[in-house]
Amino acid sequence: MTVDPDQTPPTTRQPILNLPPMVTRLLVANLAVHGIRWMLPDTTDVGVILSFGFIPARYMLPDLFGWQALVSPVTHLFLHGSLVHLLINMVMLMAFGSGVERRIGGPRLLAFALACGVLGAAAHFLLHPLSIMPVIGASGAISGLFGGVLRFLPRRGGSLWPIVLLWIGVSILFGVTGIPGDGGAAIAWAAHVGGFLGGFLLFGLFDRKRRG
Hints:
Blueprint: H1 21-39, H2 42-52, H3 67-75, H4 83-104, H5 106-127, H6 139-152, H7 161-177, H8 189-202
């Protein structure tokens, strides 16, 4: 028996990572920023962190307030301290962000993630208003995505608050012990908690299915 090649049904290949568009763009943007910084001289890279990282003292000392204070609540989300820090956040972005985007769409995902990141920075500011140490990383936004996921995951009775308290406890623990596998690098745990609570409490404002 012979088979006509023209009649052979085409094979459909599934991509290894079936990510929605906005999550893919955010992933590429974070990787690109880290790649560009990796090629910069150390002194230039330090300048990037100081300019675009979130520094609470900027909002307390008038002589430090400038354009950096206006953009850093968002730009700090695209800077990461190490490759381990970046990879951990990107894996979590793919895991949590994909589900959120499929539910509320790409533009709302972007607005939701950025809002959670800004809320995370605000929480860090409230606890450390005079700190001159720059905060960098997408953890506040990604914690908010996880908070959003909890709001629409199917569940069989019970309260979500034990999970909320567990996440807060783990965030504080890592704030004390540092990032596992990253040489004990410190994390801004308040930004994690602020972003998470923002996502958990405000997700309904972004949830289009709630209105359908």
